[in-house]
Design goal:
- Strand 2 (29-33) and strand 3 form a beta hairpin.
- The protein has 5 domains: 4-123, no CATH class; 159-264 and 279-306; 336-370 and 393-519, no CATH class; 524-674, Orthogonal Bundle (Tetracycline Repressor, domain 2); 717-890, no CATH class.
- It has a 3-stranded antiparallel sheet.
- It contains 34 helices and 3 strands.
- The chain has helices at residues 4-11, 42-50, 63-72, 99-123, 125-211, 215-218, 224-253, 261-265, 287-290, 293-317, 320-332, 336-358, 361-372, 395-429, 439-444, 451-473, 475-483, 485-499, 514-522, 524-545, 556-573, 579-601, 618-637, 640-643, 646-682, 705-721, 736-754, 761-779, 788-801, 818-828, 834-838, 842-851, 854-864, 871-890; strands spanning 14-16, 29-33, 36-40.
- Helix 12 runs parallel beside helix 16 (451-473) and helix 25 (646-682) packs parallel to helix 27 (736-754).
- This is Conserved oligomeric Golgi complex subunit 5.
- Its main location: Golgi.
Length: 897
Amino acid sequence: MSSPAGIVANAVDIRITKAAVAGKEPGLIGVHYFGHTLYLNALVLIHISMMDYSPFVIANFDINDYANAILAGEPYPQHQTQFAKPRTGAPLESSKENISITISKLDSSIENVGKQIKSLVTTHHEELLQRAVEINNLSGSLTSVRRSLDDIDASSEKLREKIRVPYRTLETSAIRLQRTRQASDVLRCISRFIVLSRRLDTQMSKFATFDKPSTAEKNLNNSKRLFTDQQDDKERTIAKAALVITELGALLDGPEDTGDTLQNCLPETGHRTTPTMDALVPLRSVKAAVAYLPFIEEARCKVTREMESMIMTGLSTLDQSLLASSLQTAHNLCVLPTLVQRLSKDLCDAVEERIRSTFDLSCISKELVSKENIPSSQGLSYKSRVRTEPTNITAPQWTGALWARLESLVEEMAACCIKVYTLEKALKLKKDPVTQRSFIADVMKVLENKPSSTVWTSLGRSLEKYVRDATKGSIFFQQTLSVGYPKLLRIFHKLFAKIAVHTDTVYTQSQQSPETVIVLRALSTFEDLYLSRSATRLNESVSQAFAGGSHAPPGSNEGVTIARVVMNELDSARFDPLLILAVARNVGAALDSVIMRAEGLISSDRLAVTLLGPMATPQQVLNGQVATCLYYCWTNLEKVAEEHTESAATLVKAGVKRLHLTYDGIVDPLLMAIRRELASIVSKLHRVDLQKATNPMAGMAGPSLYMKDLADKINYVKTQIFTNFASDMTQSCETPRALSIVRYVIRNFVLHASIAKPLGESGKLQLTTDMMELEFALSKRGLEVAGEEYKMLRAMRPLLFIDTASLASPTHAANLPPLVVLHHILVRSLLPMPHITHGWQEAEYVRWTEEHRQEDAWGLVEAALVGKEGEFVELARKVLRQARGLERNKQPPPRLP
């Protein structure tokens, strides 16, 4: 008898799946009903779900689980599907429901579903029949397609067999060929290895003979040429041995990437069926080659040691030939970039260590202590304590030791730089015999910079670092090297001079090589301190000169002192083209300070230019002292252009020019006042009666009153005014300013005397006496240097007494301006004078002639002759023609159009 679970399982055999069948109408769902599959519409399924058939449409429906759930009184399934909703009071939710009731419900449900299926089939029977016919027709076509596909598979299998067999045969042959070639290559390499090993043995034997002293070397009469030949043979032997060692090493290690001959011959496949040999067998695994390894390594060590010894000897002696041979050996050993890098590093380390010890106070102290504690006897000696700073007593010894160490440092730096330049030159000259590429190009592939750049960069960095540390940590270093910066710079100039022979080192005002820039940048701390001290010395000299203010103004001594300090500072820096420029800038600033302080003392009020007398005013005395200081300062500095470079001289000359302008600002207003005063006195000539009759019984009359006043004023200016200006105004008439006063007085007097009218015989005698008095008053200052003006004064006296017809003669009017002769012709005639025609005073007319050209003055005279006739008019016109003819002869010929 069957169990209840089996009854339920046999009764319920409905399985509804959600999966749609490919090719069916969309929206149909397959329903399995007692072994048959029916495709139901979604509406039918919805109807089924409304009848509480949701447990049967789940995808993982299991009959046994469903029966067990009914027997246990539990719901099935545990979760609700999307096709059904649980209803309250359903039979499946009650655990006490009777099994028979459940089975009856199932039967009723099956019957209901069967009726619905039958109704559905009846409704769609035409479509189902049409589908059945289509499927029957399609099955025949599918049978023929299947048959064709089977034929294709059989053909392809036969074709695959035809290709697979030759392919595998070819693959096996190719592998065998590659292995044969590899074996052949290995044998060839072994053969080459043996030949090279024997050659290396021969070369090393020959190399060993060079190390033993031969009979020829022991013979004192042996020539140096034989020794040189042997040395050349040794270098060539070492280079050849290095090349052989490199080739042996290449054979031992094998190529890094052997050709994938087999892999390149075969087409790409998804996987490798057989392994291939991707690399040659290394000779280190061959016993015949391994036996030579100790000998090769020993030869490599010997050649490397000899190469390094040759390089060090070549760098020490600067032997280009030896250095080139050693570099060729390094190139043959394939260690040239590494060797150059190591040499550069060694040189950098040596320079850095030497710089560190030079600026190490403890090293200087130990050196001095060791010298002091040398025992003079076998007795006990006192060992002084090591100091890190010198005392006032030991400062000279410390300073001397420091300068000695600096000079030694520069010598060693120069030696290192010359070595690296020699090495770099040899690298540039040597070329690879195969590629014709210079060794320096191969080295630059590994190094970032050239060896010289690397060494100089390290030198500058080390020098700057230790100089900065020494300056911060020691007052002794700071004071000694800043005060003695020119000496320090001279020491490094020796470095520049030594390396300039081996490289294109340039150190001028307009161009500096990178090497010099590196050194100067490292020493910039001391340069700044030195320039600061230099500026302080210049400013102190200026401050001391003007310390007294207006109560004790600076004079000639102070001006000379300032100029001497300036020249000393410039002389200290003249050897360096850049330092002299920096000092010249400080000098310019100091001279500006002199000008500023001088302008603060200069008096510009009316009392500074008054000439009332009898003594100079305090303002004139003050201005005279300041002008004297400025005069001696700028006159002593005028030689800068001759002794220093053009750029430095330009900077200093700008300040000197400003000094000169300040001096002119003091002196020129005073000279202008003197000219006005003297011209005012000379103009009093026209107040003298020069036409009175001559008394034959009277002797020669004395000078006129105005001439006495003029002589007194000249003497006052000379003794009271000019004495305060201990400069070009108190020397002689040869100086420009004093000479300008003398010439002005003479010229002004002659012009006034030439227009004095009416003029009688007594007046001529009086003018002659006044001229002699004026000449006497001016002669104390060297009147002969007045030149044309002095000749004009001497020629004026005979002009007064010659006959009228001779006035136009060039010989009688020599050394006299044509305007003076014209004036005298008009004085003798009844023609009006030019100033009378224009209504001017005599002083105004004379001043006008001084301010205008002589052609303009001739025009005034000619205008006075318009419409006039007579002997004097003809004479005047003749003089005008002669004057203009001479003026045209002096002018250059006109340019052709």
